[in-house]
């Protein structure tokens, strides 16, 4: 029997995404966000929900661009820090000794050391309540060559992305492979 937990932001898992922007002076900045996900196939788009209070919020509106980098398990400490500190007060790249890379197609940086990065131009934004959902059209996906499988696509087991448990405020890794999508249902 299921019990009611009330109105909560419970959807498992939430990806740990690092959103990259430049501020008004051109300083690279990043922040960790877990309210993110693919929201359209054509054009390919990702939605990232941010509070107005974040430094990144204003940067996205000003530059009309952002990146989304996926940290691997190896960078859990840096990814967590990116969500704790504000780019208004600190140079997060200097503090973590990670490397900002200027996007080739958008006016935003991504994290060199993270295995996957999406370059996004701001498609639209929607004020929802406490958060604004920024919808970015994905103009390019950059993958570390060592994380690409024989099919030419990113391999989740090589990327080892971080997952976030919203209510428990905990990080997790990816579990074991269970089966192929659009194949398992044929066994019924």
TrEMBL record:
Keyword Ribonucleoprotein among record annotations: no
Organism the protein comes from: Methanothrix soehngenii (strain ATCC 5969 / DSM 3671 / JCM 10134 / NBRC 103675 / OCM 69 / GP-6) (Methanosaeta concilii)
Name of the protein described by the UniProt record: Flavoredoxin
Family: Belongs to the flavoredoxin family.
Keyword Calcium applies: no
Keywords: Flavoprotein
InterPro entries from the UniProt entry: Flavin_Rdtase-like_dom, Flavoredoxin, Split_barrel_FMN-bd
Source species, domain of life: Archaea
PANTHER family: FLAVOREDOXIN (PTHR43567:SF1), FLAVOREDOXIN-RELATED-RELATED (PTHR43567)
Matching SUPFAM superfamilies: FMN-binding split barrel
Cofactor(s) demanded: FMN
Molecular-function annotations in GO: FMN binding
Domain Flavin reductase like: 9-153
């Amino acid at each position: 029997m299921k019990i009611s937990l009330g109105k909560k932001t419970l959807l498992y898992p939430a990806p740990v995404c690092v959103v990259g922007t430049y501020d008004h002076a051109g300083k690279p900045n990043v922040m960790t966000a877990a309210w993110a996900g693919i929201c359209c196939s054509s054009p390919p788009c990702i939605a990232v929900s941010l509070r107005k209070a974040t430094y990144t919020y204003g940067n996205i509106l000003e530059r009309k661009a952002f990146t989304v980098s996926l940290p691997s398990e190896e960078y859990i400490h840096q990814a967590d820090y990116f969500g704790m500190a504000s780019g208004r007060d600190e140079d997060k790249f200097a503090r973590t000794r990670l490397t900002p890379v200027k996007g080739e197609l958008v006016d935003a940086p991504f994290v060199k050391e993270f295995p996957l990065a999406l370059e996004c131009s701001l498609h639209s934004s929607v004020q929802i309540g406490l958060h604004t959902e920024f919808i970015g059209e994905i103009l390019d996906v950059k993958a570390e060559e060592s994380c690409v499988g024989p099919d030419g696509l990113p391999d989740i087991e090589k990327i080892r992305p971080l997952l976030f448990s919203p209510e428990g405020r905990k990080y997790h890794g990816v579990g074991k492979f269970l089966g192929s999508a659009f194949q398992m249902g044929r066994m019924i």
